[in-house]
Amino acid sequence: MGKAKVISLILAFAVFFRLVVINQSFWLDEAISVLAANKFGYRELISEFAKYDFHPPLFYLILKFWGNIFGFSEVAVRLLPISFGVLSVWVVYKIARELKINGVVVALFMATSPLHVYYSQEVRMYPIAAFFVALSFLFFIKLLKNQTPKVWALFSVSLLVFMTLDYVPVFILPVFWMIPIFAKKKKEFYLKLGLSFLPLFLMFVFWLPTFTVQLTSGRELSRSLPLWTRVVGSPTLKELALIWVKFIVGRITFFNKFLYSLVILAVSVFFGYTFLNGMKAKMRTLGIWFLAPVFLGFLFSFFVPAFSYFRFLFLLPAFYLIIASGVRSKLAIGILVGINLICLGFYYSNKNNWREEWREAVSFVEINAKNDEIALFEFKEPFAPWEWYSTGSVAAEGAKDKNVQDLVKDKKGVWHFEYLADITDPEKALLKDIAAEGFIEVSQTSFRGVGKVTYLRRS
């Protein structure tokens, strides 16, 4: 079978793996995305919504355009990141060929990657930004070999696109200046490289006022919720280790942590050996691509917390290119692909690895709630998934910093969502205030990722 047919078959498998279980409920960040894209106009997404969201606006603009055509259902909008996820497999294959690495092997790793499959289904900017980072690296490798105006232009555009999708890939920008040092490029190359960054620089100047507002909003949130850094990502050794762990096994976990640790240790042996071999072979290109952003991102997060493994999804192509550079036999390839497939099987078959059950939680409350009852949340307003899935049949309020007595004064029942309470209300003050108004717990129902929904009736 020719290489063209082989890569086509791998891409077909990549599509298949990413279509499985895509009808999951939206979780918090996804609901924020679809709610914004559906609610705001194109101009408002840039001028209004962006002020309160710590991301550039391009993803939301793309999502709105896509949703207006195909709809905003779970399946419809997830086809957007899936498309870019599959395209990433093809781009990494092309990069491998430029670097004299077995492209079929790399494509196979990417197609079956449990982490890449999971985030290719995520209605967020990360898989799309990862595609354009990989695309920029493909153009960059071509430029190291043969400089043409067309490729310089494509490289410049790709830089602009991924930086208007997400901020964290900024840590890969120094890589494009570091690698030419080892390639012994002359001054002319650096001048052209600087010119290719000019559109990005001009865009940043234009966006700076909004970016400043975003930083201010982020600081205010951190001050009001000191534990919020746990969510956005603190620069800890645990978060650093999670980059390795999640890159090799994806978004799976076991309740038995001892067993989980043994699995990680065993899998790390296979991946670690090939990774070290690959680093020796490609340290001056792929090694810099993978290590420099991790190091820079870790340091930066001491000032602005943003160090979570999923934000570094754009490094996954470099990771698998390094792995492919280090494999020494077909048996090793088979073992690594087998590990990917087993981890995918765990993801598909165990719903505990799926996204938050907001759709089910909202439906449960709306089916069971009476007219004189209210849903209360541990936040300033109902969370985005409630707003997205709710039909409006049940009154809902965010209870943080509000007078609970006023919220429940004419209510006979309360549905309390504990979601994020460990961060927004670690002292459980809301439940105490509800109890003080004469409400007694009747039942608790748990939903994956959402936590407990407690039903209380006035005594």
Write up this protein.
InterPro entries: LipidA_mod_glycosyltrf_83, RgtA/B/C-like. The mean pLDDT is 93. The protein is 64% helix and 7% strand. A five-stranded mixed beta sheet has the order 2-1-3-5-4, sandwiched between helices. It is an alpha/beta fold. α6 packs across α16 (316-326). β1 (373-377), α19 (384-389) and β2 (395-398) form a beta-alpha-beta unit.
Describe the secondary structure blueprint for this structure:
Blueprint: H1 3-19, H2 28-39, H3 42-47, H4 58-70, H5 74-98, H6 103-112, H7 114-120, H8 126-145, H9 149-163, H10 175-182, H11 187-196, H12 198-224, H13 229-232, H14 237-249, H15 257-300, H16 316-326, H17 330-349, H18 358-368, E1 373-377, H19 384-389, E2 395-398, H20 404-408, E3 413-417, H21 421-424, H22 429-436, E4 439-447, E5 451-458
Parallel strand pairs: 1-2, 1-3
Antiparallel strand pairs: 3-5, 4-5
Helix pairs in contact: 1-5, 1-6, 2-4, 5-6, 5-7, 5-8, 6-16, 6-17, 8-9, 9-11, 9-12, 10-15, 14-15, 15-16, 15-17
Key words describing this protein structure:
2 domains, alpha/beta, Glycosyltransferase RgtA/B/C/D-like domain-containing protein, cell membrane, D-Maltodextrin-Binding Protein, domain 2, 5-stranded mixed sheet, RgtA/B/C-like, single chain, 22 helices
For the largest sheet, list the strands in their spatial order: 2-1-3-5-4
The whole-angstrom Rg is 24 Å
Order of helices and strands: HHHHHHHHHHHHHHHHHHEHEHEHHEE
The percentage of residues in β strands lies in 5-15%
Average predicted local confidence, pLDDT: 93
Number of domains: 2
Q: In DSSP terms, counting alpha (H) and pi (I) runs of 4 or more, how many helices?
A: 22
- The CA-CA distance between the termini, in Å, is 74 Å
Unreliable spans: none
Report the count of strand segments: 5
GO molecular function: pentosyltransferase activity
Organism: Candidatus Woesebacteria bacterium GWB1_43_5
Domain Glycosyltransferase RgtA/B/C/D-like: 55-207
Subcellular location: Cell membrane
